[in-house]
Amino acid sequence: MTNFRFVGDDRLDVGKSQGVPEEDWSSAEALEAPLPPVEFDPFKNVNLVALVFERLPDTARNMARQAALHFIRSGMEENTLVAVFAIDNRLHSLKHFTNNRESIRAAVLRATSGSYGLFESQSTDTIQGKLKETTDRMDKDPLESAVMGGRGNAPDMAVTQEIELEELTVNILRQAEKLMLYQRGHTTVSALRALIREEGRQSGRKTLVLFSTGIQIPFPVVERYRLMLSEANRANVSIYAVDARGLTPEEMMADTRYMLGQAINASRSQMLTGLGRFVTRDETMIDEYAETAIRMNGTGTLDDIARSTGGFLVANTNDPRELIEQVSEDIRTYYEVAYTPSLNEYDGRFRAISVRVSRPGVKVQGRSGYFALPPSTESPIQPYEVPMLVALNSGGLPQDFPHSSRILRFAETESVEKEVFVVEVPLKKFEFLEDEEVQQYNTRFSILVLLKDDSGRIIQKFTQDYPLQGPLEKMGMVRDGSVVFMREADLTEGTYLVESAVVDQISQRVSARRTRLIVPPSRKGLGMSSLAIVRRVDPLPEEEGIPSPLHYQDGQIVPNLTGEILKDDSSGVGIYCVIYPSLESSEEPELILDVLLNGQVVGRGTPRLPAPDTNGVIKFVGTVPVADLKPGRYEVRAYVSQGRSAVKEHAFFALAPSGLNGPASAQ
């Protein structure tokens, strides 16, 4: 320990309401009572307090409003600056940090009277109602429901068809619910991280008071959530959570019971119908429902956020005044302990902190710990990135398993190139954990791409963490696939360094690569993009915004970097490129495709090019037949000519003998 001190005000009247009788604390007169100004002394420490209102339904706004206004009346003393924020689909700033209590009150009233995603809430209610109808029917006669869902054993086929269509609708709604759950968790965590990061730059006491009805953290957001807690602790930001639902204990676990019910019903259906039929989607998602149910306890998440950062949860009460006043007192009076950790390396692992006192009967509020990450301000480091950054900064590049990477180049404008960075890794290279007790597999891996300028400064960082889990019976199919990671960047003329790394988070094995990228001077005249072997064409997501050069009609091209193709694949080998005709030539571009084996041309084609699109470019997708080709490694060369101008590109694919297991993929 390097420092221990008491900070704050030891007066006996801290945290008491100023001029408002206790019995009138929530009355209209109390809400509108004039508030005296708060003094500010520039020579003393500042207390920064962010009041954050997170997606409050109508039933919770009154409670949150009263609690927040009581804090303004009782908790704002000298040098306390308060800001007001709201979170729905994004973070909104309603009032900057100020000691003007009248303007803060106006912002609180606005935050607790506006609309928080009404249509989204109605959609969720529709989903829950529809799923509950199906659940209730199964509860009445589970055997009949299971048989009807078994395709063909029910006497009334019209009823069977109705059930099937209803199941289809329910599955659609359930997927929508999953996406909304992910979006909400991701948005809330990202918003809180932004607030924490900015508060962390300031000196003095920093506090965040979160008014919410519970935060649900889906599995893909767990790592970001843990990082948020670590960043709060590193930035000395304490979070106090207020459950704005008040005294409603039954409501707290309703969602959890519902999701567990889905898992139970799916499992029961399996037992009743046996294995002699098609497995339904519900049955493949039993473990996912159970996992979701564990994280559906939003109140538990609020409690975890508060306890992990040195605060506490205000919940299960319709009169939070005493606890709100305790928050105010904590802001003004606390003990500060500092120490230098015996940390030899930044390994990205979580380091727990425990504070104990010898005095009996004392309750300690302290921070739970932090991730051992190197300090970074320009590009925040995620814990899962650390092994990959260490590998890229080491003397040699580890190759614990193979991974493929490629840069696909497209012309954005005459002076700007769009580079698509692609990384592909076979999933069979990662370690899978098998839990026989719950019949579930788990694996986790991460991918990182760094784009640097010629001085070695990081220009852009692309990264993603992949936690995967599912039923054991599906593990073999998943392991036979590949993950394809794609990101885009616009670059001007110059020399760049591109580094890619992949880590198996379970075994901590790492694979890293480094390549140099040269963007040539401005393009003039006829041009052509990189030639890519096509793995598949995925449908475009509905929320897709900025068009990508890999967008083709209503889909997105997914490249095949390994180029592995089965000989008996009747569809042949898909190829893709973009052609940029010269505007100065009146002639139409022409394309010649050559297929080579060992440097010798074994096939040639002259496909007709489509007309240019509205942007004046030609997107070409073609197929190389493989029926007459023997197994081996082939090269495809594409020649494009227009008048006296010509350009060429090439790509490779490997033709495997018939009957071998071909690679699948997952993006």
Q: Can you tell me the CATH architecture of the largest domain?
A: 3-Layer(aba) Sandwich
**Strand segment count:** 29
Going across the major beta sheet, what is the strand order? 4-3-2-5-6-7
Oligomeric state of the chains present here: single chain
CATH superfamily of the largest domain: von Willebrand factor, type A domain
Overall pLDDT score:
77
Structurally, the number of domains stands at 3
CATH fold-type name of the largest domain: Rossmann fold
Kindly estimate the percentage of residues that lie in beta strands according to DSSP: 25-35%
Number of helices: 15
Instruction: Give the CA-CA distance, first to last residue.
Output: 48 Å
Radius of gyration: 30 Å
Contiguous runs where pLDDT drops below 50 for at least 5 residues? 10-23, 117-124, 142-155, 250-254, 256-296, 661-667
CATH class of the largest domain: Alpha Beta
Please identify the structural class as seen in this structure: alpha+beta
Helix content: 25-40%
The largest sheet, given as strand count, sense and whether it forms a barrel, is:
6 strands, mixed
